[in-house]
Write a structure and sequence with these properties.
Radius of gyration: 22 Å
Distance between the termini: 41 Å
Strand order of the largest sheet: 14-13-16-17
Helix content: under 10%
Order of helices and strands: EEHEEEEEEEEEEEEEEE
Number of helices: 1
Shape: extended
Oligomer: single chain
Number of strands: 17
Length: about 220
């Protein structure tokens, strides 16, 4: 419910934080991060700790440190009491950077993101169709070395649709399909070449529909 940190995985453990090439060349990497959410004020604090074995003094001029991706959600959220609250149009993103390196000088500490209000009139209408959204079972299951298929259905027109596959650690290992589809029944091949024997989960996100199912690979 926030203008919040974006993630690469379903379990939301692998954030979309990228250390710049300049900092990587100095041996810097992310040691850890911590995310704290204040529901009362609809704010969050993200703390990222970088470690490296070289001084940034060897770099001349301005350098990028890292890139953090955020997700944008509808302009409301639920507070600690479960009540719906409207967000402000402007979202402020500020940063505080600390370093033990005396040559490391930070300029600027605040930025503002302008979010347009999303009204009911702006939302795409749900189209009534004889085809409903559906994510079917893998065929065959268990999936063998010959591969398998995922059957699914989309119930709308020009609907962005993705089918992703995660391992048992919730790490994204492949995208079986990503594109825009119209109402109908479809089948997509499982990228078995990227998978070893084990338990996996496949997730379909299509318009307002989201569902995850389990499958087993036995090569």
């Amino acid at each position: 419910d926030y203008l919040g940190l974006a993630y690469n995985d379903q379990a939301r453990t692998n954030p979309k934080i990228t250390v710049s090439s300049a900092m990587q060349s100095l041996g810097y990497s992310i040691a850890n991060f911590n995310r704290k959410i204040d529901k009362a004020n609809n704010s969050e604090i993200l703390t990222i700790n970088l470690v490296g074995n070289s001084s940034v003094a060897s770099q001349s001029g301005d350098i990028d440190i890292l890139t953090v991706n955020f997700d944008v959600f509808l302009p409301f959220y639920r507070d600690d009491q479960g009540q719906i609250q409207l967000k402000d149009k402007k979202t402020e993103i500020s940063h505080l950077i600390g370093s033990s390196d005396p040559c490391f000088v930070v300029e600027g500490d605040k930025g503002t993101v302008q979010l347009d209000s999303t009204c009911v009139d702006d939302l795409r209408p749900i189209q009534i169709s004889s085809t409903k959204y559906h994510l079917g079972q893998v065929n065959p299951n268990p999936v063998n070395g010959q591969g398998g298929d995922i059957n699914f259905s989309v119930g709308g027109t020009n609907i962005p649709t993705e089918i992703k596959i995660y391992n048992s650690d919730s790490k994204l290992i492949g995208v079986a399909f990503s594109g825009t589809l119209n109402s109908g029944d479809y089948s997509v091949r499982i990228p078995i070449e990227q998978m070893s024997s084990g338990v996996y989960f496949y997730e379909m996100v299509s318009g307002p529909f989201r569902e995850t199912k389990k499958m087993v690979v036995q090569k």
